[in-house]
Amino acid sequence: MNTIKLNPNDAKLGLAHILVSFAAVFLGAIAGLLQGLVRAGLITLPSWLDYYELLTAHGVLLALVFTTLFIFGYFISGLSRSMGELSVGERKMAWIGYWLMIIGVAMAATMILTKQASVLFTFYLPLKASPFYYLGLALVIIGTYISGSGLLHHYFTWRKNNPGERTPLFGFMMVSTLILWFIACLGVVTTVTFQMLPLSLGLIETVNIELSRTLFWYFGHPLVYFWLMPAYMIWYTSIPKIVGGKVFSDTLARFSFILFIIFSMPVGFHHQLTEPGIPNAWKFLQVVLTFMVVIPSLITAFSMFATFEGAGRAKGATGLFGWFKKLPWGDVRFFATFMAMLFFIPGGIGGLINASYQLNTTVHNTLWIVGHFHITVGTPVILTFFAAAYWLIPYLTGRKLTPAMNKFGMFQTVLWTIGMFIMSTAQHVLGLFGAPRRTSYTTYGDHPTALEWLDGLFSNYVTMAIGGTILFTAAMMMIYIVIHLAFIAPKGDTAYPLAEAAEDASTAPKVFENWKLWILISFTVILIAYTIPIVDMIMHAPPGAPGWKTW
């Protein structure tokens, strides 16, 4: 077993990110449970607690706080493991970034919980939050930029000191993800700096709503890939080692991440297909580009199953599907990841429906979208991060995953899978029946259509709440698992699973690490897709909208 240890300071830094990320899971899961029960009409909240306050907290804590902190904790530990310990300066930058993120999260969460920022996960204008909410979010992004810059410095220093050597796959993929993140954040930084903060501070009286939504979704969709790409990193760099195989194609893996850099940004209009202020031709262009992003995900799916088959056949499997039986089904590190992969199949198909110009008109702003979000982020990403925690936390704490905790984790994964299947299926079906997203419990005056949403098996808010309750139980189990692995599990050696390329693997072309080239191409595609429509939104803007506080 490979038990190469991290520098204790790097381990402490990575663990700090991961533990706080799971604190966000704890709070976000509570908010999710309560809002699901309210939406089904099963409970009534006390006067001091509001449904939209819970809805905002649930989205921000799970989709932004948990993912971002876990990803940076994973990056720090993986980079230190694969490319050597961080320097003192790089570690200081990461700590500065960490504390800025913590302060920012505390500011934003305080504003949400004190009813000063019930603006939901998307914080669309003209909904107006406290300026401290926007400042908190700004600090989180600034923190990621500082921490990410330190990680990039480490990567480029390693390349300078190791000329001619193949860059570890982990480092390559981390750089790709950070480049995407840095470019994507420019949109939300622009709207927060020049629209949201000035409106909240009273410096301006009205804002251009179409422009703000466009800038948000320029950021909002690549944000999904900022979540997905680290999950893919775990699939590519750790799962082959866990199943006893090797990376199927190092070159293909790197190529898929380059495609994400190029095509993930100029696709935001497929979230705005029903908005009249964007010409159809520009919507069509970005729909085409959206479908281009499917390619790296298909490459990843092919690579993973090729890895599984190769590992199984290396263990003596015969027949067409004999390799399937050779996979380590009793290992929660693999089982949880495999379940995450399975959920991404319907999640990806749903994404194609959402991005299709005609089909989108049926599902837009319905619960279908919420169901889709939960089987793309809520399972492929989050369940993969849960799976990684089974080896990452013990590795950082010098402990080990016991057989008993492995079995407990298997049960937790099954429960999460069942809960997500029930809840997301109900959300998809309810969405097809016209149930809207983002709304609290209402029967719209006992309208017959609304009453149908409380009748049937899967076309029922109660079914959705049952699935959510099961998910909440699984989330609390995961919190216990994290606490056990971090503080209670017996001391021992846990390996950091880093897969190796096959012996006959070809070396990736040098152009793959010509980051200036891929950034230039990315910006070129972005400018083609966005320049004319954004200029048109500014030059022919309708009268601006004043800010609203509706709670």
Features:
mainly alpha; two-stranded antiparallel sheet; 551 residues
List the helices and strands and how they pair.
Layout: H1 8-39, H2 51-83, H3 88-113, H4 131-161, H5 169-201, E1 206-207, H6 209-237, H7 239-242, H8 250-263, H9 280-292, H10 294-314, H11 322-325, H12 332-354, H13 360-363, H14 367-374, H15 377-397, H16 403-432, H17 448-451, H18 461-488, H19 515-539, E2 545-546
Antiparallel strand pairs: 1-2
Helix pairs in contact: 1-2, 1-3, 1-15, 1-18, 2-3, 2-4, 2-15, 3-4, 4-5, 5-6, 5-8, 6-15, 8-10, 8-19, 12-14, 12-15, 12-16, 14-16, 15-16, 15-18, 16-18
Please outline what is shown here.
The chain is an all-alpha fold. The protein has helices spanning about 10-40, 50-85, 90-115, 130-160, 170-200, 210-235, 240, 250-265, 280-290, 295-315, 320-325, 330-355, 360-365, 365-375, 375-395, 405-430, 450, 460-490, 515-540, and strands at about 205, 545. The protein has 19 helices and 2 strands.
